[in-house]
Every structure is written in C-alpha cells, then in structure tokens.
Amino acid sequence: MPLRKEAEVIIEPKEIFVGSKDAPVTLMEFGDYESEACARVNEVVKQVLEEYDGKVRFNFRHFPQTRIHQRALKAGEAAVAAAQEGKFWEMHNVLFENRHSLGTTSLKLHSKEAGVKSKKFLDDLVNGTFGWQVQDDLKEGIDRGVKEVPAFFINGEMFKGKPTFANLSVAIDAALKKSKKKVPAARQRA
Predict the structure, then answer these.
(1) Most buried pick, 61, 95, 112, 131, via CB within 10 A?
(2) Residue closest to 49 by CA, chosen among 97, 99, 107, 92
(3) In degrees, to the nearest 5, what angle opens at C-alpha 67 toward C-alphas 61 and 70?
(4) Global pTM exceeds 0.85
C-alpha cells in the first residue's frame, strides 16, 4: 500500500498580522515590494503600529503591479515562503529595504538576512510554490476595488486619501470611536 503524503498547510497572507489580535482596528494594505510609494508608506505603518500599540493590527496583502514591476510577484512569493517559518515581517521589511534588488538570487540572500532557514526556499521560488497565495491576494484586491498601490482598508472600509501618518491617524481615531460605540452598554459600565 503506497504511503500517503500529508498535505502541507500553507500560512496565507490573509492570516498574517502584526499587532494585538484583540485590537479593535484592523489596518490592511495592498502593496507591491518594488513600489517606492509602498516602501515610503511602510515607514508610516511602523509609526502607526508604534503609536497605536494594542489598538491596531496590521495585515499586508500582495498586489504586484507586474506590468511595471516585473520582480514584485516573486518578491511576494518570497514573503509568503518566509511566513511558513514565522519570518514574514522580517522578510517584508528586508524586501522593502532592498526593493531595487529583487531577482531570484537576491531573494535567496534576503531570506537569509530575514532569518529563513529553509533549504528548499530557492526551489519553492523557482517552482512558484506560493504563487497562488500572491494571486489570491491580487484577486481579492481587484474585487475590493484596488487599482493602485498602496491601498489601505480600515476595518474593511477603503481608506480614501493620501496615506500619511496624520491622515491614517484621523481615520484610525474615527474607527476607534466607532468600535467603542459597538460595545454593549453592560460591558461599558463594568
């Protein structure tokens, strides 16, 4: 009787957050690792997470703009591959820091910098093992109306405006107020 191979469970980008899992506000970004605007806003996101510690959790979703950024798709796959070892956020930041150097060989070097130990990292990239996860993010972004990056959603609602710290803060503060109103009155008095 042939042995059945166990199906490997893949950690998907939609399941990867940074910040408190009980945070009342979820900030989601659709982005591209080759985008200068996304790299700049990554620093803004870090500032938001620091300022709103415990109140905001962040989820990054892949939206590679392959017509202008030929290496963004593989970079997204590299981030998903790193996530399988719990190194998504380390890889995420390394990719933005090295956005001008995202060829396959460079991605392997970046994975080491991020602390990825997988011996099959390069094979997974070459074989497109995590390509479907990046494509699923792209499809979801399109379904949500994303046309360009960076695109943000706050508690599921599309954020309109330039994603500066000041603008995001105003929207997050409004979402925090809204979430407090949803708490049942009995819990508020306790």
Answers:
(1) 95
(2) 92
(3) 75
(4) yes
- Helices 72-83 and 131-143, interaxial angle, to 10°? 110
| Interstrand relation of 157-158 and 25-31 (parallel, antiparallel or unpaired) | unpaired
Q: Which residue blocks in the chain are alpha helix, DSSP H?
A: 36-51, 72-83, 88-97, 104-113, 121-127, 131-143, 165-181, 185-189
3-state class of 26 per DSSP?
Answer: strand
User: Rounded distance, CA 154 to CA 166, Å?
Assistant: 15
What dihedral do alpha carbons 29, 8, 78, 93 form, nearest 10°?
Answer: 50
pLDDT attached to residue 187: 45
Number of domains in the chain: 1
> Do 31 and 65 form a contact (C-beta atoms < 8 A)?
no
**3 within a domain of the structure (yes/no):** no
Residue 83 sits in a domain whose CATH number is 3.40.30.10
**Does any domain span residue 190?**
no
Tell me which residue range forms the domain holding 122.
19-182
Largest Cα–Cα separation, the chain: 63
Phi-psi region of 38 (alpha: psi -120 to 50; beta: other; left: phi over 0): alpha
In a domain, 159, yes or no: yes
Q: Is the peptide bond before 24 cis (omega within 30 degrees of 0)?
A: no
